[in-house]
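Following the same procedure, backbone shapes were mapped to integers, yielding the entry below.
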Amino acid sequence: MSESLWRQRYADALAQAAVRAEAARTSGKLIACAFSSNVDRVGTLDDALLARLFGERLMPADAPRVAAVSNVDDLLTGIAQCIAAGDGTDLVIRDPAVQEWLLERMPGRLQIGGTGVQAASTLTTLGFPALVHLTGRSPEQIAALQARDLMWLGTSDGLIPIEAGENPDDETMWHPALEFNAGLRAPMPGHPAAPAANRVLIGYDPVNANLRIDPGFSAALQNPALDIDVLLVSGFTQLHEPEVRDRVFADTARALQQWRAARPDLFIHLELGAMPDFRHVRQIVEELHPYVSSVGMNIDELRELLAVDGIALADPGPGLVAQLRALSARFPTPRFSVHTREFCLTLTEHDAAQERDALLFGALTAATRARIAAFPRLADLTATLEQGTVNGVGLALADELAYVPGVVVTPGIAFTGPTATVGLGDSFTGGLLAMM
């Protein structure tokens, strides 16, 4: 299938999204987004910042993969490992002094953090109203939210504007985030080059590590006067303690059952997140897949799910489809999907054309955020489509799998030169859900 045809499909999906956004604003339809929230400081890992952090130090290439950070050596080793592998993860900081050490040395832009609130900020900037779940309401967190006029908080009495929920007594949870481009040399012996662009998320966050579901958000999802038929569930990557994970997953399962009882047609999308211990990623989908309509992940998270069973990620093609099918059979949901910069691939029982348009709009949204390093407007997406090219790897994969039953594949949008890497999956998810 030609690039020109896919470009037309992208344009058609963008036009549909504009119509849907206008209709949602007119009717008051909301997309609900949960759970965690924080404020990211996003810095670009380049040679200058590496010199500031590492000096002349080279971290050992054979060290065990860092999961929890107890000191600066752990932190630097974990960062170097991510660069060398070209993958992204969340590094858990145990000692707040280590985070302060990093924040003192890294400049960066401030933006809202957490998959749910980043998806919500993506949606509202694109013109879609959103109901948002916040774990903190400090002035800094409220100010970091985008297009707040379309963003709402739930209460037992209905909705309130996002600013009305501000609480000066809440502590802001800061998360350093380091993005890097392909080719960056890791501070290890031999200076291996990053094989792909990615990011390292870092945080000392006792609030999201003890996640509690907001009763007001729950009340809104059970309020029959509100028009909500899509829900994003995410934000479990800070749950480091086993007993807390068990409690949060039990709370979430109970809440999802209550919300679906109130809204039988509610489309519930579970978006995974990278975690240092791959078994914890597996636990998210194990515990929650019975209660959701859809499971989504990026390619790193898919790799982590497979690694729990000692399985290496297959190359794009029938082997990758087989791996997804095996996972979806083990954790059955109507929709099981992976998104990358090159392509998106979904196993679905739903309408294939709607799925294709949702993937295209999500991919265009994420590509635009990568291009401008900010939450995009619809006009920004138009510029991205004009300037970018259809990814060749994705184009070939879409052709190869075009007639495989129950499989939808779409190619991504490619750019040359440095691009942002933090929050792309969250913006993809926001764009995807806008079309569901």
